[in-house]
């Protein structure tokens, strides 16, 4: 290990660090660095980036970083933090990428390919013949006492012939410059989508430098994996889906992103049903087969019948479908056992035993303390060890502090480590307390070395394992290079694999000569349900906003809430649980939040623009709720909220593909608008309604101008009724809503069954025609009441027919 | 002994159940030297839309059924003829507690009867310090594994009150232990928990027990019940021994084995997922009739 001499510093020219932010950069003593070599000289792949950084003014650099941040914010990239305050957190990017030369990367990649093959043979053996145990290589206790050993999967061979299809590895570089594997991720590795977003964000900041540097692209890696999954389908009609635990999951954003990027469905356990041994997705057109699932759900939750019986996010019968070889699941259920930390101790021996070869890439040295001599070794060297749970499937630097340095002081109520090792060795491992390399990070305008580890992804393709040329680097927050210090969290940087030749520019878009236009796949019922309710909540919020604006406008003039019309409307709103005493009432927030919730369940179907507009509406409403006062203040606030809501609706209207999903969203809106107008007319157009009610109706129905133009009389009961209930051309009238609902329903799947109209379509038609033949004088409160019931009836029917 | 067994489990749902999938483990196993299933049949009504059988990890033939259409009741009827030999209890060759770990460590296997599966926590039996302390009080250094297990079996029998009202099917061992009350399932879980805390592999046996009516009384139809007891791994030579803490006795020719597992979750007679609102009622009748 060569240390950089402290004295006799090289001149700037010799080191190649320029006089910009890297000028004073130096490695930490005894630590390898990604940018400079042991003698302090910049590695060639970094030269261009550093030269350019040196030529930028601090303002330019900051402007570039802002571009990257803005991209991430606009794309809505977030991850969810468990526990504590929870909530969504923005992706913590470190703007300076990590650059690695292609030749060095090839060596690392070869080691990871060997490792992925080895892991595949181990998991196949554990769930198959168990030779490693029978032949004395792997202690049975390590498997039998392991919560990730899923007994129902023993003997269930994957239909694809492989257990593993997608893995990731945490690798770090030791002081001698060589790479180590710190942890293997085989359960449901996350981060590949974040790596893509990291790449996009980083290239926003450094598009010019990126273009000049021969950086390997990421798209072909995903394309090859997508093709590999496509080839596992049983037939053309079969679907591939990403299975997510749902929006509560830490990396849900990424699940939606990957599904959207690769064109797969995004499903939750309840979307699936097992019928005659086959896994099917519930869609609005009935059950449709799924033959490949990319699971982002931990195995034990996948089937409440045969795995964790308390799981609410699984699919009963999934294991049975796997026994029947009806499904390829990526990775096979039970693969998580390979993440067991103590397994690292046995990999070298297993590699020799199964494959007759040594590991090209070593793991971090690990000793399982269930064995006497290993325990003795750990005890004798405890000051150089990290001690942690043997069965943990989390890397020691990422396990919520369960792992501790052997040299760490003992807490008051803690049992000394040496005693725990003696008593409970089988549950503990000792791992060498390694240090990591450092990479430059921008701190207060200059580059400073920070510890990093890489997350690298491997996908099984038709030609064997492919390693993503890149990934992301986790960067520690301080300058403590002990790997365990990564527990404290940090940032993520893009990783550029730099070739000295131009690289292939792959894209996932099909080339022109063989494109095909397929219709969107069948809409899952749960997605349809969320779209329908998104439509209803959005419209419900709009309805409330319009009445509240009209109310507060009049209140601002009258200053008397007991004025008959105001009191009447307050009463009407109270029945809907909307309060006029606060400027922006709680119930309005609940409606908007419900819309956000429905939308968040179908993030894979939304453009980032639409999502942003909707969350912005919710945030603004929440802010207004804090301080807006009744009267003028509230009128103004409602106008702003209405404008924001119209912005969202407009984005959706202008951009959403006119297919089944659109229809459910639209039906939800029309139905809610129809209900709103029906209730309102039933109340405010009655003959005994207070003075001014008709004008207010026109205002809420946004029809003041039209009324003035179309009728040569002042507002009268019949003209208002005509315009707001029965005018087929007024987009706010009840008849208009029914007309549109009828049109959309005709286009839904199964609208015609065996040559006959479906019951739902027939009922839609009945309600529509029933109203179409009425005249204004026939519109009594009783008619409105019946109409309200009919609209509720349609809502129930659509749920029963399509959304269950 | 030759027995004719019958079991009826009847479910009644408040609102019709749909899309019901059940795993049924009620058929006695064939265990060479211990018992032999001569003939058996399982009937589910309404007739399932799908029915398959598969071997689970612990070698039980599980019936898996799926009922799509709405149904208000579900009836599961099992009939079987079983030849039971009981277990042969010879002289005690089981090791002392301190030499058991070596025997376990030398057992390089993951097959269903490997002791490794029956150590440590399992889904329904988490580690429990109070039960561990309770178990350690019966274990003296010079006792063999079988002696320790027998002593724990007797202690639980003596200290606990059989009370069908005190606990439910999902009562934890810890709760039953604090109550000092429960039924066969609770006593079995507590004894397993205690043995495992000592490092002794122990598992759950579900089955049937022939009940002998009091002298002069007729046997009542359907009065027998599904039962549970413990199997203990007593070293490589002795292997598994079954002890019944509810009755403080080794399992004999009256104990008919249905399934083996780590705890109740592995052997529950019916594990089901149904779509239904409201509650469900279950009635059970068991007849164990010597032929």
Number of helices of chain A: 26
CATH topology-level name of the largest domain in chain B? C8orf32 fold
Shape of chain A: globular
Structural category of chain B is alpha+beta
- How would you describe the shape of chain B? globular
**Mind summarizing the main beta sheet of chain B?**
7 strands, antiparallel
The largest contact between protein chains, plus residue counts on each side, is: A-B, 27 and 28 residues
Mean pLDDT of chain B: 93
Give the radius of gyration of chain A: 32 Å
Output the radius of gyration of chain B. Answer: 19 Å
Oligomer: heterodimer
Protein name (chain A): Circularly permuted type 2 ATP-grasp protein
Domain DUF403 (chain A): 523-803
Domain Circularly permuted ATP-grasp type (chain A): 97-475
InterPro entries (chain B): Bac_transglu_N, Papain-like_cys_pep_sf, Transglutaminase-like
Describe what you observe in this structure:
The complex is a heterodimer of chains A (804) and B (291). Chain A has five domains: 79 residues, no CATH class; 265 residues, no CATH class; 68 residues, 2-Layer Sandwich (Dna Ligase, domain 1); 134 residues, no CATH class; 147 residues, no CATH class. Helices cover 43% and strands 14% of the residues of chain A. Chain A contains 26 helices and 22 strands. In chain A, β8 and β9 form a beta hairpin. In chain A, α15 runs antiparallel to α19 and α20 runs antiparallel to α26. The longest helix of chain A has 34 residues. With 291 residues, chain B is an alpha+beta fold. Chain B folds into two domains: 106 residues, Sandwich (Immunoglobulin-like), CATH 2.60.40; 169 residues, C8orf32 fold, CATH 3.10.620.30. In chain B, the strands form three sheets. In chain B, strands 1, 2, 3, 4, 5, 13 and 14 form a seven-stranded antiparallel β-sheet that branches. In chain B, α2 crosses α5 and α3 packs across α5. The longest helix of chain B has 15 residues. Chain B is globular. The mean pLDDT of chain B is 93. The interface between A and B is medium-sized, with 27 and 28 residues. Chain B: InterPro entries: Bac_transglu_N (IPR013589), Papain-like_cys_pep_sf (IPR038765), Transglutaminase-like (IPR002931). Chain B: This is Transglutaminase family protein. Chain B: It comes from Ferirhizobium litorale. Chain B: It holds the Pfam family Bact_transglu_N.
